[in-house]
Amino acid sequence: MAIFTTSKAFRFGNMAAACLLAIGAQAGAHGTDETPDWAETRWGSGDQLGAANHMTSDRVLEAARLVTEGKVYSLGITVGSDTPAFPPRSMSVTVLQPNQSGNSGLGENAFTYNDDIFMGWLGIGPQIDGLGHSGENHVYYGGRRYDDFAPASGLTELGLDQLPGLVGRGVLLDMTRHFGTDMVAEGVPYTADDIRAAASDQGVELREGDVVLFHSNWMELLDGDNADPARFAAAEPGLGVSGAEYLAEIGVMAVGADTWGMEVVPAEVEGEAFRAHQILQAHHGIYILENMDTRELASDGVSEFLFVLGQARVQGAVQMIINPIAIR
Do 236 and 265 touch, CB atoms closer than 8 A? Predict the structure, then answer.
């Protein structure tokens, strides 16, 4: 999730500030000694894949049959030093020519090359939230506690190195079409009824193992003709609590959106913070995808597609910058 700033300016709206205050108010000692009822998972206490267990060979083959045109859609936005990010996240790239200063290069053939050094946070721009990201009172997926699996050196369980990738049937729900607007307004939650209605209107059925993406046209606030990064950062439309519970009941594999935090901000219940994250990730092991550029898919009227994601498997990583691919 990301309440947006850049390396040049640390600014966010009143709604974003309220979210940070809510998060801070809920932060405290590392959790309770009691194991919550939701901590029991369908795949057992030692499971580290969560909803990725739905990625069976049969489902992958079924998703591959959705490819009829071979058109490829890039869902990730370009990431740079000015990419908006949840504070204090930032990034930079430094390009060097190691051991080539003052000479013509390596070997008699004068081989020269450029390398780059990445310095920054992995939860920036288009990203996947692994199952070690979102918890409830410092309890995470499968009943794991912060102090048991999340040292500063990297997660010992639930790291994105455990995830082989995500491949499956992708479904785009066009919420601008559902609400009859060019852009869904901030603070609008996608309820279970909204999701059912949008899917029905598009003639698409949501199924176990799907990757469900929501289109609100929010990305236009970043780089459209009437870009407004401050508005983009201050709040957002997104998944509501009943919507999250409905998708978890279906058993989807991942949920994503074209917004910085995927779920509605401000929250439906005053004082709550990122409740849909807790329901999807901690309670049900469902992956979250943020800052997905769904505009071209929506413009082409695509509802179903083959979804392919192969994230970098950095040991112990909580999140990762990604560029998923949709193929129709």
Answer: yes
CATH code of 69's domain:
3.50.30.50
User: Rounded to an integer, what distance in angstroms lies between the CA atom of residue 190 and that of residue 131?
Assistant: 22
Q: How far is CA 240 from CA 86, 190, 264, 292, 295, in A?
A: 20, 5, 6, 18, 21
Give pTM, 2 decimals: 0.91
Query: From the CB of residue 321, how many other CB atoms can be counted at a distance below 10 Å?
Result: 21
Nearest to 205 by CA among 169, 161, 165: 169
Q: Are 242 and 207 in contact (CB under 8 A)?
A: no
pLDDT for 87: 81
Residue 96 located in a structural domain: no
- 80 belongs to a structural domain: yes
Report the alpha-carbon distance of residue 174 to residue 153 in Å, rounded: 40
Q: Per the structure, how many domains does the chain have?
A: 1
Domain of 237, in residue numbers: 14-91+122-327
Residues of the chain with pLDDT under 50: 1-29
Q: How far apart are CA 62 and CA 255, in angstroms?
A: 19
Residues 6+ apart with CB under 8 A from 3: 12, 16, 19, 20, 86, 87, 233, 260, 261
Categorise residue 165: left if φ over 0, alpha if ψ from -120 to 50, beta otherwise. left
Largest CA distance in the chain: 69
206: in domain: yes
In contact, 278 and 261? CB cutoff 8 Å? no
At 76 the pLDDT is 97
- Domain assignment of residue 266, yes or no: yes
Degrees, nearest 5: CA angle 294-305-318: 60
